């Protein structure tokens, strides 16, 4: 069977060493079979193992191969649609539950890093940067909203204050969230995988799930084996394909592009981001960036609907970087890659159960780093019979993309064009 390596990203090049994990051969039995060794699968596995379940994970490529090992590495709280939108959609009771969970993912990441001594360059502090007074107004109301749910590590920044944090003249202000922050995302996944194995969990790499046999005792079939389980957790997200057809219609893989500079040196790096916070702007199609531990700048942005890989990633992202930091015009780009995340029409995660024993969580819509860690806990609770928090997510309404799978890409691209036009015109 073909061996799928990591894409040539900065993260893969600077990953911590890991043991080889062979593919599944033959038949195994377990309590829970998890499909996908990204953050959702790994987080679920850890919570289940800590509660006495026997867990096996099948992974089509390698641990953290998908979005978990390719993202911008930013710990951003809440969901892709904020709590006020959820409140208008589902009412105050459900929104109250989801609101209190909106800041839990970041706490789970920090707990995991501390408990299992995961080396992933964890740094505190994330900045939302406003390019217009309207965006600044949104941040002011976002701060009030988050504080309603007990989230108080926030500071509004005026133009003078944000200049102390980011060497960019474009921003009129911003908000600093000290419970945000950044990590080396692939090393976080690899550290969580080692923690899973330390608790007796088994991870099979290069082992795609090709078919799920549903029923009272479900079976996950792989090219050279099968896993019999009491429960299945589907955690493939944008890399799931058509394994579960009823999930594919209501979501769409999208690509985001990331570049990494050569090392900038301590002095230049400190002038760009003196406190080493990560930053994302407030545009609909946003740019995001941060420094690595070896003082490179990672800069990402842009969305390719339908997850095609663009021919020249540097040509798309470098101009965005130079608009933010013109002082980097002579700096070389060492790495450029793309990764897929899963978009839903509502921009809210899809969580649910198929039959009695197949659970799933997907569709983080760009807010995956924190949400997936929370999802693992919520899924594990549901398997233990504590379903209140699971039900709060499962009750969120979801719709198929208009025009079905054939037209979801053009419709979404038109929508994105409209919003990016609004960003540029300052509406």
Summarize the structure.
The chain is of the alpha/beta class. The chain has 14 helices and 17 strands.
What would your notes on this structure say?
The chain has 427 residues and is of the alpha/beta class. The chain has a domain at 123-183 and 252-344: 2-Layer Sandwich (D-Amino Acid Oxidase, Chain A, domain 2), CATH 3.30.9. The protein has 14 helices and 17 strands. The strands form two sheets. Strands 3, 4, 5, 6, 11, 12, 13, 14 and 15 form a nine-stranded mixed sheet that branches. Strands 1, 2, 7, 8, 9, 10, 16 and 17 form an eight-stranded mixed sheet that branches. Strand 16 and strand 17 form a beta hairpin. It holds the Pfam family DAO. InterPro entries: FAD-dep_OxRdtase, FAD/NAD-bd_sf.
Please tell me the CATH architecture of the domain at 123-183 and 252-344 by its name.
2-Layer Sandwich
Largest sheet: 9 strands, mixed
Report strand %. Answer: 25-35%
Tell how many strands the DSSP assignment holds: 17
Molecular shape: globular
Structural class: alpha/beta
Q: Classify the fold: give the CATH topology of the domain at 123-183 and 252-344.
A: D-Amino Acid Oxidase, Chain A, domain 2
Low-confidence blocks of residues = none
Helical percent range?
Answer: 25-40%
Radius of gyration, whole Å: 21 Å
Alpha-carbon distance between the two ends: 52 Å
Residue-averaged pLDDT: 90
Question: Mind telling me the CATH class of the domain at 123-183 and 252-344?
Answer: Alpha Beta
State the CATH superfamily name of the domain at 123-183 and 252-344.
D-Amino Acid Oxidase, subunit A, domain 2
Please report the number of helical segments: 14
């Amino acid at each position: 069977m073909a061996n799928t390596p990591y894409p040539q990203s900065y993260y893969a090049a600077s990953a911590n060493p890991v043991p080889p994990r062979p593919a599944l051969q033959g038949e195994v039995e377990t309590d829970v079979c998890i499909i996908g060794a990204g953050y959702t699968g790994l987080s679920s596995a850890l919570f289940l193992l800590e509660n006495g379940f026997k867990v096996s994970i099948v992974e089509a490529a390698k641990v953290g191969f998908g979005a978990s090992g390719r993202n911008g590495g930013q710990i951003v709280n809440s969901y892709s649609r904020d709590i006020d939108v959820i409140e208008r959609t589902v009412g105050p009771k459900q929104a109250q539950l989801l609101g209190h969970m909106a800041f839990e993912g970041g706490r789970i990441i920090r707990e995991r890093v501390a408990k299992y001594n995961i080396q992933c360059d964890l740094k505190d502090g994330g900045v939302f940067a406003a390019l217009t007074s309207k965006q600044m107004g949104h941040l002011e109301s976002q701060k009030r909203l988050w504080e309603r749910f007990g989230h108080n590590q926030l500071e509004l920044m005026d133009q003078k204050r944000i200049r102390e944090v980011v060497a960019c003249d474009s921003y009129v202000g911003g908000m600093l969230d000290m419970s945000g922050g950044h990590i080396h995302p692939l090393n976080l996944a690899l550290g969580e995988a080692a923690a899973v194995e330390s608790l007796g969990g088994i991870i099979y790499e290069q082992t795609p799930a090709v078919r799920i046999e549903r029923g009272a005792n479900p079976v996950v079939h792989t090219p050279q084996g099968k896993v019999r389980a009491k429960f299945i957790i589907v955690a493939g997200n944008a890399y799931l394909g058509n394994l579960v057809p009823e999930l594919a219609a209501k979501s769409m893989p999208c690509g985001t592009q990331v570049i990494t500079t050569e090392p900038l040196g301590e002095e230049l790096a400190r002038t760009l981001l003196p406190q080493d916070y990560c930053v994302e702007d407030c545009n609909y199609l946003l740019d995001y960036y941060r420094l690595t531990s070896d003082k490179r700048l990672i800069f990402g942005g842009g969305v390719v609907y339908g997850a095609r890989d663009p021919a020249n990633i540097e040509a798309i992202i470098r101009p965005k970087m130079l608009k933010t930091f013109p002082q980097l015009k002579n700096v070389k780009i060492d790495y450029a890659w793309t990764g897929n995340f899963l978009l839903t029409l509502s921009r809210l995660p899809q969580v649910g159960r198929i039959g009695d024993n197949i659970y799933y969580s997907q569709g983080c819509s760009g807010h995956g780093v924190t949400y997936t860690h929370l999802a693992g806990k919520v899924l594990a609770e549901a398997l233990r019979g504590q379903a209140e928090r699971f039900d709060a997510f499962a009750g969120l309404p979801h719709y198929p993309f208009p025009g079905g799978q054939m037209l979801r890409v053009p419709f979404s691209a038109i929508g994105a064009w409209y919003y990016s036009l609004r960003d540029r015109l300052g509406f």
